[in-house]
Design brief:
mainly beta; 4-stranded antiparallel beta sheet; 8 strands
């Protein structure tokens, strides 16, 4: 299995990023928070993995389907 990319489930503004490239994460760990229509939505990891790339930073506006984080399997 190769790298997997998590995309934005909804459009919004990145309010916080809790991970960086090289971090090892567990299933359910917080990755980032999206502010969508004044509601904070915590985006959690669906996999146990290592962060390869973080595609966004705080303040970025994202569209639904835009890449957020790429993982490499552990």
């Amino acid at each position: 299995a190769g790298p997997r990319t998590m995309t934005a489930p909804i459009p919004g503004v990145v309010a916080a990023v809790m991970v960086e490239a090289g971090d090892t994460i567990e299933h359910g760990d917080e990755l980032l928070t999206l502010d969508a229509m004044k509601m904070m939505n915590v985006i959690r990891s669906p996999w146990e993995s290592t962060i390869a790339t973080v595609h966004v930073e705080k303040g970025d506006r994202v569209a639904q389907g835009e890449p957020l984080v790429t993982f490499v399997p552990t």
